[in-house]
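Weekly puzzle thread! Below is a chain. First person to post its structure in C-alpha cell form gets bragging rights.
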Amino acid sequence: MEAPLYQVRPAALLWPTSIRPLHTPRPARTALAQYAYPLDPIPIAATGGKTTPRMTEVSEILALDDRTLLVVERSGYEIDELVFKFAVRIYEATVAEATDVLRTGSLARARFVPMSKRLMLT
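Winning reply:
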C-alpha cells in the first residue's frame, strides 16, 4: 500500500503516478470501491550517491469519515552515499468527485478523476 502497485512501479518513477486505496466495510470482507490518490513528485533533488530508487510513498492513511482521509506522504532522497533525508507532508483527501477505479486494470490509459487533496502540514 505504501508505494504504487508492483505492475506500475517502473512507470512510478515518472510523474504523475497514483496509489489505489480500497474502500472496505467493517469487517473487511470485500472491496466496495477503489480510488486513485495522486502522489506528489519528490520535492527536493537528490545530491548523494543515487544508489536506490527514489519515490514518494504513502506511509499512513486515517479515515475521518466515509469520504475524507488524512494522508501522510513521505519522499526519501539521498544527500550523501546511503545517507537519506525525508520530506513529509500531510494532506486532507476526498473521494467526493473521484472515479471508482476498482474494476479498472490499469490507470495508464484510463479516463478517471483522481481523489482531490489539500495540503495541511509539511
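Puzzle host: Confirmed. Bonus trivia for everyone else. Helices lie at 9-12.
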